[in-house]
Write a structure and sequence with these properties.
single chain, about 280 residues, alpha+beta, 3-stranded antiparallel beta sheet, 8 helices
């Protein structure tokens, strides 16, 4: 006789497992970038008036990253399906009709959702249907839930998701600090107060075209100062995800955590319909 709390605990187990996969992903990404897989070189710009920093070498990201992303997404989608299952069981005293057809209803638009939701939630009351309606689990309603569904469908039935290296911007903070220290009119007392090891972070995002993974030859930053190539520009890298007609994320770890928050909100919205049954 599962209690309402036990039903909720089973749902949350899948969300906990998703968290473990996201943590693993973050660790693996860190290990990959610790190998210095991307190198940047410089060249003169087209007008020969400045320097362009560009990607001159890149190692492909490990395929396991895409597999772990898929595992995290699968756990979150399963948590949603468990919500549907446990609510249907709660509504039918543990004897749902058509149990093999119970899924969390997600659709490409509101009309398709309304047409099919009752079929995926057999035996539930109008109040339950209204609560699911409020979630708006369709494109244009709750896009995070729709994207999860589409990404999971791609990963399960087609191939690994398109995951690869991307750029998050150029940090010129250390360059700015070095320039301040060498400026002739900078008050010595101010520099002394700030300290020799002061670190600034000032990231220029640039115009990323959404290409994932980035490729050799991609231009990152243009410098028209007339200075020789500098070593105090820091280029920030990450792992992104791109699935055409679904979504592009330049930071897949942050995106997965956002998806997890979205699923947790759905669970919180619907957990009141979980009941203890014989």
């Amino acid at each position: 006789m599962p209690t309402a709390q036990e039903r909720l605990d089973q749902i949350n187990l899948k969300l906990d497992r998703a968290s473990a996969h996201i943590d693993e992903l973050q660790r693996r990404i860190g290990e990959f970038f610790n190998t210095d897989p991307i190198r940047v070189s410089t060249k003169r710009d087209a007008t020969d008036t400045g320097i362009v920093y560009y990607v001159s070498h890149i190692d492909p990201s490990p395929p396991m990253l895409a597999a772990v992303v898929g595992d995290a997404i699968q756990c979150m989608v399963t948590a949603l399906d468990h919500v549907a299952w446990h609510i249907c069981c709660s509504e039918t005293n543990g004897n749902p009709t058509s149990p093999s057809k119970i899924y969390f209803p997600v659709a490409d638009n509101a009309a398709d959702y309304l047409k099919n939701r009752a079929r995926k939630l057999p035996g539930v009351s109008p109040a339950v249907l209204a609560a699911f309606d409020a979630v708006k689990p369709y494109k244009g309603g709750n896009d995070a839930i729709w994207q999860l569904h589409e990404l999971n469908r791609t990963e399960k039935h087609r191939t690994l998701l398109t995951v690869g290296s991307t750029t998050h911007g150029t940090d010129i903070g250390q360059f700015m600090w070095n320039s301040m220290k060498s400026a002739p009119n900078m008050p010595p007392k101010l520099l002394e107060r700030m300290g020799e090891n002061t670190m600034f972070r000032f990231v220029l995002k640039g115009d990323h075209d959404g290409t994932i993974p980035i490729a050799v030859g991609m231009e990152l930053f243009g410098d028209l100062s007339g200075d020789p190539p500098r070593s105090d520009f820091k280029f920030e890298w990450g792992i992104g995800l791109k699935e055409p007609n679904v979504v592009t994320h330049l930071n897949i770890v942050a995106a997965l955590r956002d998806y997890q928050v979205a699923v947790s909100r759905v669970v919180d919205d619907l957990k009141g319909f979980l009941k203890t049954t014989p």
